[in-house]
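Today's session is about reading a structure prediction critically. Students often jump straight to the picture, but the first step is always the sequence itself: look for stretches that repeat, for charged clusters, for runs of hydrophobic residues. Only then move on to the predicted structure, which in these notes is written as discrete structure tokens rather than atom positions. Here is the chain we will use throughout the hour.
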Amino acid sequence: MWHGGDYADFNLAFAGRFITVGSVFLLLATALLLQNVKPSYSSAWRAASALVVFLVLNTSTLLAWHQHNAPLLDSDIWRTERTLAIRAATTDSAVVACHAAGQIGYYSHRACIDLLGKCDRVVATGPIATSFRPGHCKWDYDYSIGMLKPQIIADDWGTLRGWLQNRSTLNGVDYQKCSAGFWVSRGCPLSPTDLAAQQK
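Below is the predicted structure for this chain, in token form.
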């Protein structure tokens, strides 16, 4: 098993995926423990014990899910809608740069540049750009945007907005921001108003 680095803003409600690698060993240990339980314990006792363990481990999470739905649901919906707008307004040849590459890469059906380098060897092996935030502390905009020249930048997380505003032209590629929050290169056949219209 391999578990990649990431962070969750120190909010354990969103950190479930970071402990999944250990849950396998927890299940194995539980199975071995139950295998050695004395036969004198009835099946009903075992079932009741399992239910108590389940409730202790999951009650707070289930209540939160019931009250507020899935964590980050609103963000996931927003990002998926944004991605579908990109797909509707672009051709198959469009290249999109983004920080959150999950929904954008999956739903857009477009080539994506991962600005945080999880899928980019150059960025991944490059220097750390900020404080320790595993999975969110490496970027190289001179390379990812200045050299690779995506037609669309789907977000401006972190320092990207300031970086773009300080550079009017990047190796001959000029970007402008549209009302929907996208950055579009002036050489892209798609206009910022096209994306904004698709986003509505």
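Discussion point for the tutorial: The chain has a mean pLDDT of 79.
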